[in-house]
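Each record in this resource describes a single protein on a pair of labelled lines. The shape at a given residue is found from the number at the same position. The record below illustrates this layout:

***
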Amino acid sequence: MTKTIEEHIDVDVPVTTAYNQWTQFESFPEFMGGVDSITQTDPKHLHWKISIGGVKREFDAEITEQLPDERIAWKATRGTGHAGVVTFHKLDDAKTRVMLQIDTEPEGVVEKIGDALHLTDSNAKSDLKNFKKFIESRGQETGAYRGEVPRS
């Protein structure tokens, strides 16, 4: 059964800074709990290694849409039932709302128990709070990818 998680947070950086940082997928372990590593194999493909609740998992994901300063959408292509979109909304010149929507299919006993306890929702909220601390403490992005991936 698919579960949808929706969370948002306001960050005190311009929309371009927030977006640019989110394109630096290999930095996600610095602010996302349970993410051990992400390898970007080309502009559209990512390999994730995660550890949650003692369960290690790997999966591949494809970026299905990417519009600079607006949105990044993805879907898992192997290893898990997972898809999502993150959007960036300019609130003013120095503040951005980051909105995250994830559709996931919990697998196995540990994931299903975690889902029943709303840990998946808590993790998403925590990851956004950690992103806020990460980007605001730096004041600038660690890099940027400004390429577009049109919706297929």
About this structure: The CA atoms of residues 44 and 63 lie 5 Å apart. The helical segments are 15-22, 108-116, 119-138. The chain is about 25% helix and 45% strand. Residues 112-119 have pLDDT under 50 and may be disordered.
